[in-house]
Amino acid sequence: MSNNNKKEGDNVSFWLPTSHNTKGDTLTPHKISTIFLIQEYLELKQETADKKEEIPTTYRKKFHLLLLKLIQHPDLPYRDFHSLLTSETYGIHKVHLERFERIMQDISSSENGMEALFDLQGMIDKLMSEPAVKNGGVSPSGIVGLYLRRVHVTLDKMSFSEVLGLYKNIKKYYERDLRAIAIAPGLKIEETDLGIMKNNYMERASQCKWSLKQAELFVAQQSELLLCDETQALSPKELQNKLCEIMQDNPLYSQAYFLCYLNSIRLRDYFNALDALKRAFDRNTLKAGSSADHKGYQYSSLNLAILHAQFGHVTEAIQSLKECIMLAQENGDRVCLDLAQSWLTFLQEGKTQLPETAINSESDKTIATNVSVSFQALVKKSALSGSIPAKLFEVLMKSDVLNCQHSIMNLMATSMAERAALWNLYGKNEIAACCSQVMLHISLKRLGKTYNSDGICEAICSNALWLGLQGHYNLAATVLGHAKQRFPRYPLSRFWIITDCYMTSIQGIVSGKWHEAEEACSNLYRLDRELSILQRASLNIAKRNLKQAQSLLEELLKDESLTALTQVRAKILMANTFIINSSTIMSQFIEVLSEALTIAKEKYLTYEVALIDAHFSYFLLGMKMPQRALNSIKVTVETVLVNGSLYDKARITFLFCKCLIEACTEKEDKVAKLPECLNLLEQAISDFMTLECYTKVKDIYIYLAKLYNDLGMAEERNSYAYKFRMMEQQYPTSVEYLDIFH
C-alpha cells in the first residue's frame, strides 16, 4: 500500500501528524533511573580522570550501547533494567553498578530522596553549560544531550505535587522488583530478548511507558522491516500487542494506527485493516481547524482506494481516488497526485492520461520509481500482446538505468525477475534460469538493509522450479524451503505455494502417482485456476480419461481473456487427446495443432513451437512418413534439449531415435544406425528412471525388443524383453498407459 511523504529527506516511512502530545513528555521512573545511571557514570569518569586513569574501553563501549537501548526502547520494569546492567552484552563496570544501586537505595529509603530529584536540574544545567571536554563528552546536540535537555525541561514545568508523585512512583518502581532481584540475582537478559520483552506488571502503570519519540522509532523500524525483510520484524501477534501499548500511551499518534493497518493487511484481516485505516486519519478531529492538520489525509484515501481495488470495487476505488486527488492538490503534494492518477488510469483502463510531470521529473526518486514501474508494467502488457521481444528488452533496459541511477533496490530485483519471465515466455528457459541466478547473487543490501521484494521471491521460485523440472527434487525442495522461511506470509507466499503445487502435480503425473497429482491440482486451483485446469487435463490424459480432459480444455478455451501461452498449451493438450483416441478424425488433430502453431509464432513462443513440431513428427511417424517426421524433429530437438525439462528431453530423444531408425529403408542401414541410437536411448532411459517415469522406460524396452525382432537379432531381443519383464514385475503398469506421447 502506498504511503509517501512529500518531503524528500524525511526518513520516517509514513506521514507524521502535527498534533501535540503532552503524554509523550511525561517523566517515568525508568527515565529518571537512566538519568541517575548517566550521572554516576560521569562522576566515575571524572574521578578516574583526576587519578590519571580511565575506565576500560570495553566497559565504555558497553555502557554507550546500553544507553542507546535504554533511551530508544520503552520503559522496563526495574528487574529487567537491572538485568541489563549485569548482562554480558551491556554489563557495566562493577564500581559503576555499585554506585548506581546505592543512589537508588538512598532515594527509596532516605527521607531526603526528594532532594536528589531537584539536584538533577542543577546537574543537567551544569553539563549543558560546560564544554564537552570538561563534562565527560556530553554534547548538547547529541543523543544523550537531547535526552537530558528534554528531562530538564519537563522537570522545570512540573509542580511540587507532580514531583512528589514522581518520587513516590520511583519508590514503588524500585521496591516492587527489589525482592525479585534478591531471589534471582543471577538472572541475565540477552540483547535479542529486549525487542520481545514481556510486560511483567499485572496492570500497566498510569505513567506513560512509550514516549512519543520511542514510538516514532519503533514504528519506523517495524515499517521498514515489513517493507524490506518481514522475517526480521515482530510476529503479527507481538507487533499488535506493542501497537496496543503505544496507542494506549499515545492515542493521537496516527502512525501507530497505520502500522496496525499494515499488520492486519499481511494477515488478510481486511475488516480490522479497514477499521485501523480509518482510525489512522481520525485522530484529534476536534482540533483539526487548519489546513496543516489535514496534511496526509490524501494518503488515507489513496490506501482506501487500493484496498477497494484489491476486491474489484472499481466504483468505490475511483471515488476514493478522486477525493485523494482533491486533497493532494490542496496540499500541493505532487507525489501523491501522480500516484493517484496512475491508479486512476489503471482502473479506468487508460481513459485518463498520466501527467507529463511523471516523465519530466526524473530527478525525484519517487517519480523515478513511478516511471520505472510504468516501464515494467508496459513490458508485461506488451509481452502478453505479442510485441517484438527486442523492443521489450530495450524498454526494460531503460527501467534498469533509472533503478541504478536512483538506487531503487526493490525495482532492480523486480526488473531482473521480469527479464527472467520474458525469457521463459519466449522459450529460453536456460537463459531465464541464469537471470534468476544472477539476481540472487547480486548484493541488494544497502546500509545493512535486505530487500525481500516480490522479485527476489519469484527468482527463488523460478530456480526451484527449474531444478524440479531437471529431476533434482531434493534440491528443489531445499530451495523452496528457503523461500518458505524468507517469505512466510501472503501475498509473497503465493509464489512458492503455486510453485510447490505445480511441481508436485508434475511429479505425480510423470511418476504415475495420481492421488498426489490430484491433490496438488486441487490446491493449485485456489491460487491459479488456469494452471490448475491445464495440470488436471494433463493428469486425465495420462490416466486415459480423454473425455474428461477434453471437457476441461473446452471449458478453459471458452475464456476470451486467456493469455496466448495458456491458449497454446491448452491446444497442445487437446491435440494429445485426439492423437491418443483412435476413433478421432486426424483432421481435428491437425487443425488444433495448426491453430496453436499460428498463435505461438505470432507471440514468439519458441519452446511451444518446438513442442508442436514434435507432435507433428509423432503424427507423421504414425502415418508411416518417417523421413518427413525426421525432418520435422531435427528442427525441434536442439531447442528442447537446451531449454526443456528432463522429461521433455527424454521423450524427444526417444522420438528422434525412432525417426532416425525408421527413416532407414534398408535393414543394413538400420543396423548401422543402432549403435549411435543406443547411446541416446540409454541416456533417455536414465533420465526417465531419475524421474521415476517407469512407463516410458518400458516403452523404450518394448520398442527395442520389437526392433531387434524385426532385424532377426534374437539375443538382443531377448535381453530387452527380459529387462521389460523385470521392470514390469517391479513396477506393474496397465497396458493402456503404454505408448502414449504425452
TrEMBL record:
Its main location: cytoplasm. InterPro entries: Apc5 (IPR037679), Apc5_dom (IPR026000), Apc5_N (IPR048968), TPR-like_helical_dom_sf (IPR011990). Residues 257-349 form the Anaphase-promoting complex subunit domain. Pathway: Protein modification; protein ubiquitination. The keyword Cell cycle applies. GO terms for cellular component: anaphase-promoting complex; spindle. Pfam families: ANAPC5, Apc5_N. Belongs to the APC5 family. This is Anaphase-promoting complex subunit 5. It comes from Culicoides sonorensis. The gene is CSON011232.
